[in-house]
Batch of 2 targets.
Target 1
Amino acid sequence: MKKEEQFPDFRTLCDIAKLFASCMNDYLYVMDLTHDVYFITENALNRFALPANTFSDTRNTFRSFVHSEDIDMLLADLDEIISGKKDEHNLKYRWLGVDGYPVWINCRGNLLLTAAGTPHLMFGCINEIGNSQTAADNISGLLGESSLHERIRQLMPSLKEAMFMRLGIDEFKLVNERHGTDYGDFVLREVAACIKRSLGPGQYVYRIVSDEFMVLDLSGANYNEMNRLYHRIRSEVDDLVSREHYKAIYTISAGLVALKDTDGKQHDYTGYSETMKLSEFALSEAKTKGRNQLYFFRQEDYSAFLRRRYLNSCLSQAVSDNFRGFELNFQPLVTTKEEGLYAAEALLRFRTPADELISPIEFIPLLEESSLIIPVGRWIIRNALAFCKTMRERYPKFRVSINLSYIQLLKTALFDDIKGMLDELSLPPDCLITELTESGHLEDSAAVRSVWSKLKAIGVGIALDDFGKGYSNLTNIGNLRPSIIKIDRSFTLKALENSYEFDLLLHIIKLVHNLGLDLVVEGIETSDELARITLLKPDYIQGYYYSKPCTQKEFMNKYKET
Ligand code: C2E
Ligand code: MG
Ligand code: MG
């Protein structure tokens, strides 16, 4: 605690603070406790939601930018200072940033007294603590993310050519789990050294977060040179693993983002955080593609990733909003014998909130990846069965066919779900057909076979979908023992164009019939196609010739009476 006569007054202290502010990241303040005036250096205006850098009525003004959970603590601390109970302010709490989000700060201050010994001025420093640990990192011995940010800020806007190579240690979590964090720290330090050893002039490395590093290239290196750099780092890391006698086995992946394209075209540099986002994407692509490799950023991949992310968020929102945006369409399956309606295939549709209709070819894999196919699948079964019940009032033998995903078979109690819903609606099991597409590897699964055989045992129809499209294996007819085979449109088209394929289809149909199974030909669009395919004597036809998939209402209008 110092007496005022030895020290400058409020205004002079403010001027001194201004002089220092230009060479520091922290914020200096002076508070006049006698006249209730607060001054903070101007750099704080860019960061915090302050009304001005000098203000009076301090208690009320603090309320406008100090986090509501912290204001009482701050005022209590100031009260203790003003009442002379303590002479030092040292508090960690939150101010609101200009973006409205809380920013952790550490505010320290010293008190100056008047000649009479009463508290008069407080001056001190505010520094951000929420990101201070990112400036430098003692584990790897490298500068941290905020130092990279600072560097880029200094270089912009004259920075025209730069490469950002984000590197990540593969399976680092396992290194920590199996060998402890001390060994993990050792690996981080050694990998940092591997990277440093591999760099040339004009190349710098920073530790970004956890097990990720960023190499900033300002040397004007091209893609080939960066590729060579990556391989140098990779072989250094391989040597490190072998030097350690394979105690822990890990590799290194990297994603490369350039300010300049390979063809010399300049990217629009939209800022540091955008570059960091792109580099994060690039590294995760390298890991998704199998790790231990370098991925060069491509705008097409990123656009596809953003599209998937957008659709994923629309889909999960739709599921939590009572399946709003999903709709089932129905397409008839017609018997060839008397051209009667046999069944309808339920085909899922999805409309985004922006009214864009998305193809199931695009959104079904996303539902599968996120496992949202589980609730959506239940919704499909329930709605398709409800539709079937309504149709049965007119067509007592009407059946509905639904497409199943392997996820539903492997991760849910599908048999119990289906049985429960059939009972709930008092429908017989043979009103339902379940379709499964050959995937090439899951058919052998005992779990899949067990669900299918249980469904079949109670009378649910089992259809092998997309037969003849891409991967097709006759042994699946033996493995899965379906009751129906659905020939895919691509095979149908080939059979219509080419006599060899036509004969092949003829023999498949004979084989299927000899096994006592039914056969559906999909994708018939014209009367000519129908006439030729009918020669093969399939049991059922599905195609635009009879109807495109349509809404429940349209379907019911089309098939009013028996
Ligand atoms: P899929 O099960 O083989 O369904 C038949 C597809 O062929 C449907 O495409 C249908 O609209 C189309 N199609 C039928 N007749 C013709 C025709 O004459 N000409 C042409 N050009 N196309 C015809 P859609 O509705 O786009 O569905 C594509 C695929 O998405 C389906 O193939 C199925 O694998 C999947 N899918 C659709 N709905 C669901 C669902 O509810 N669950 C699951 N897991 N997959 C579904
Ligand atoms: Mg199908
Ligand atoms: Mg099909």
Note: Residues 172-198 form the longest helix (27 residues).
Target 2
Amino acid sequence: MYFPDNLLKYSEGDLAKLFIEKTMEKIRKFTKVDAVIVGAGPAGLTAAWFLALNKLNVLVLEKNLGIGGGIRGGAMLLPIALIEEGEAVEIARSAGIRLYSGLNGVYVADPTEAMIKIATKALEAGASIWPGVYVEDLVTSGRGDELRVRGVLVNWTPIIEAEWHVDPLFIEAKAVIDATGHEGSVIRLLVKRHPELKLKVPGMSSGNVWVAEREVVEKTGMVVPGLYVAGMSVAELYNLNRMGPILGGMLVSGRKVAMQIIDDLGKR
Ligand code: 48F
């Protein structure tokens, strides 16, 4: 007998009731948070980890069922990611990611392992990850110079894919991070909803690995009060070069945006 007989007293209905009660307990905490991170790729997960380590209440929203974003496919589905020496290796090592030797100063990692380990760090630090949730709009106040992002509007991904018009629900946040990679979903929403800003999202530029790695990190940060950008959506916003299957800049960008938010919210 692999489970004790006393479990037989619970009916299917009892299990469903437990499921619903515990879900409500869990998701009611998601309605007002310190930071919402849109996208569970390397930049978003790293940001979640460092924000949660600093005791912020963090929610990662991911439209797909799985975490890890684009890097899971390595390059051309060849399951390798490269990580360069410096801050990126320091972050990878503290997540416990195994690094294999490559070139002098360029390490090799398994992208699935890297993403699982960073997600585990984020969860253990107290962040929550909610898969299957699509961020379809922003909550804001003011316009133009007075604009402030105060949260997001969310829906289930299958509702978006079915193109049903079902109203979304609010999530309030002191900071929202666009970590949606090449999609740049949140910054594109900002441009569409707020033409008065005269902002453009030109999309990324062509490949140039080291320039791309440096500039993505340099330009990571606040776009308008309450809205921040990290990872490849930085390249989409500022027309920076792309870098391909090198993971380092994503980790460093995620940590940088977390530290900026911690400072901006006075939580350091
Ligand atoms: O694409 P993604 O991995 O972004 P990233 O963290 O890292 C980029 C690298 O993976 C790689 C690269 C550099 O090495 O070029 O591609 O910048 O993760 C973005 C995540 O955001 C989700 C999407 O499903 C993916 O998992 N996402 C995008 N739009 C939405 C979203 C949305 N509107 N709502 C929720 N999730």
Note: The pocket of 48F is lined by residues 38-44, 61-64, 69-71, 134-135, 179-183, 185, 231-232, 243, 245-247, 250 (CB under 6 Å).
